[in-house]
């Protein structure tokens, strides 16, 4: 597909996060918003206006209508998690490529239904984990993959937290058992789990053990939790995710030869430049009174925000499938499924009284 | 005691770490090295010369001789952990104040013997956890204690690791089951556990659970391990300690209102100035495309290195006891014992197949 034929997106629903992704689609050079659908046509109309959609954008009063539109190539699905399996499956059956918000499913069984449908219909699947697409992520991976600089991964810790206010903790879909039943684990833990798997070259841990005493709301939805992951080779990972702490987005990775640190991995402090920190070959000074060298700061510029790069990458894949008959890229469903497997294992461990849960792939 | 009457230290043994503490005693305004003892008088003589001890320093061919010297007020004990209980107890019985290297004992039962002997003999006890005495530590604590800036502690992670070379991993006392049987847990984990307790205002966790799959040497000594700690109020802590990873000395603490990060908490990168990072009241920018504010760097200067401040603080306490008949300061044995209790719990959890261990205080 030539760059002059952009991938035409349909947006399912008027979620707040869809405003960010709508802007990203507008910014991406190979994508355009073709349609938006909501259960209420008034809501969709207002939403299109508020978000500066082109006047040519089709406005529908149902999700089905978006899926039935032959001028929609791909859908972005920011619906509550409990609705993902229904709408992602229908989209795939209608041959729409699927960019799916996380958490992608309530469990891997549901996700497998989605992934199988995408595969059998030959459509691209990608979860909307935006930070994967920031050029900083590739730069950090270069460091982690360098056997001379970072060496072998020994330990990684990730935190993703933000502080929900009273309104959020009472009314947000992320704390509703019928909408996003995975709570903070699905919403924030998803990122930390992805970060840990990313650091580990997506090798699944052998065992996942939830940290004791997570916090729940009255409906039993997780508001904060954590887990430890182990790989049987001495490698360990831990994470903490929460709706009850100030914003923290950390990855702290220890290798045999170096360390990587980043403190804004999910959403960079600034949109156009993002920092990370490395140190390698550290040594202790005379009389053990100092440590050398101090960590180095790296700043990675980006012309497009990470969510636009995500749309661009997704649209490139869709373009290749449409234009050149390529097969869907398997990397994205594969790492999405691995992330979900770990999410499920943490949840299972919590339910089993913090017993270790083995991951069966 | 007037400042003109410095506390007279006896050094037991010629450990490498004693070189650092000898310099610290020389730097502290209220301390002096009065004697050094080794099992070999030749070794002690050479050591005194190499380390620039004053010609008036008494050189002894045994530890007993140091303890019998009436011109020794206090001893610094850098012997292998397995010898601590014998020599710290003897020192206390001879009315010498005790500055004890960590890990202070092989278990809390041994430590209690030491602490009881120190208490009944009215001598000051302090463990040689140097970073406690850096002015940065007090500045960081100010932030953590500020209910408006940091809020309530929700999560803390600490890593302390360094890479042992072949010589270290084969011959260092820290990997010998008859000398420092706690291995990396006692040597490196001690600091991370102390950091976690310090962050938690020394409130002991309810439960300690070792991370699965620590690494051991052939003699069964721990080379890397970790644990999670929980407090029953949703607060969690995790740590990783290792002889098998590049130097890392991290504390990453999440509060309900702010975050604290430090990456060289055990030994600062530089001797005379040490950084830490805070952020508070974070908020998400328009469309969730940026996070504000970026963390602030704080630099804390110190006129004396942290180990000299430790000697100064210890000597102040000893001076008050000697000169003014004060009672020994209980803070130091109390936090030492709590640290040991958590070390013991991690070890017990490892031995019990990573079962949770309740801390009984």
Automatic annotation (TrEMBL), chains A, B:
Pfam families: GFO_IDH_MocA, GFO_IDH_MocA_C3. SUPFAM superfamilies: Glyceraldehyde-3-phosphate dehydrogenase-like, C-terminal domain (SSF55347), NAD(P)-binding Rossmann-fold domains (SSF51735). It comes from the Eukaryota. Gene3D superfamilies: Dihydrodipicolinate Reductase, domain 2, NAD(P)-binding Rossmann-like Domain. Residues 145-260 form the GFO/IDH/MocA-like oxidoreductase domain. GO terms for molecular function: nucleotide binding. Residues 7-126 form the Gfo/Idh/MocA-like oxidoreductase N-terminal domain. InterPro entries: Gfo/Idh/MocA-like_OxRdtase_N, GFO_IDH_MocA-like_dom, NAD(P)-bd_dom_sf. Belongs to the Gfo/Idh/MocA family. PANTHER family: GFO_IDH_MOCA-LIKE OXIDOREDUCTASE N-TERMINAL DOMAIN-CONTAINING PROTEIN, PTHR46368. This is Oxidoreductase.
């Amino acid at each position: 597909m030539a760059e002059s034929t952009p991938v035409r997106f349909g947006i399912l629903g008027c979620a707040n996060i869809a405003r960010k992704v709508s802007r990203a689609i507008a910014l991406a050079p190979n994508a355009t918003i073709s349609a938006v659908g909501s259960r209420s046509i008034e809501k969709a109309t207002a939403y299109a206006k508020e978000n500066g959609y082109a006047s040519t954008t089709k406005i529908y009063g149902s999700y089905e209508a978006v899926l039935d539109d032959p001028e929609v190539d791909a859908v972005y699905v920011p619906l509550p998690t409990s609705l993902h399996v229904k709408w992602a499956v229908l989209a795939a059956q209608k041959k729409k490529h699927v960019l799916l918000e996380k958490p992608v499913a309530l469990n891997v069984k549901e996700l497998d239904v989605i992934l199988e449908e995408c595969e059998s219909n030959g459509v691209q699947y990608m979860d909307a984990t935006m930070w994967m697409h920031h050029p900083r992520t590739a730069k950090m991976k270069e460091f982690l993959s360098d056997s001379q600089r970072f060496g072998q991964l020994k330990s990684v810790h990730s935190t993703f937290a933000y502080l929900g206010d009273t309104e959020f903790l009472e009314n947000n879909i992320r704390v509703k058992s019928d909408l996003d039943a995975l709570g903070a684990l699905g919403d924030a833990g998803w990122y930390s789990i992805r970060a840990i798997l990313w650091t580990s070259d997506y090798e699944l841990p052998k065992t996942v053990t939830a940290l004791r005493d997570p916090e729940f709301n009255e409906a039993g939805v997780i508001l904060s939790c954590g887990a430890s992951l182990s790989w049987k080779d001495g490698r360990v990972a831990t994470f903490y995710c929460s709706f009850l702490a100030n914003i923290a987005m950390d990855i702290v990775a220890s290798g045999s030869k170096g360390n990587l640190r980043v403190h804004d991995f999910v959403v960079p402090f600034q949109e156009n430049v993002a920092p990370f920190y490395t140190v390698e070959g550290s040594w202790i000074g005379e009389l053990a009174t100092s440590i050398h060298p101090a960590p180095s700061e790296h700043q990675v510029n980006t012309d497009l925000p990470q969510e636009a790069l995500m749309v661009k990458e997704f649209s490139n894949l869709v373009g290749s499938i449409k234009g050149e008959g390529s097969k869907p890229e398997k990397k994205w469903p594969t790492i999405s499924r691995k992330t979900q497997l770990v999410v499920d294992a943490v949840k299972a461990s919590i339910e089993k009284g913090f017993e270790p849960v083995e991951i069966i792939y």
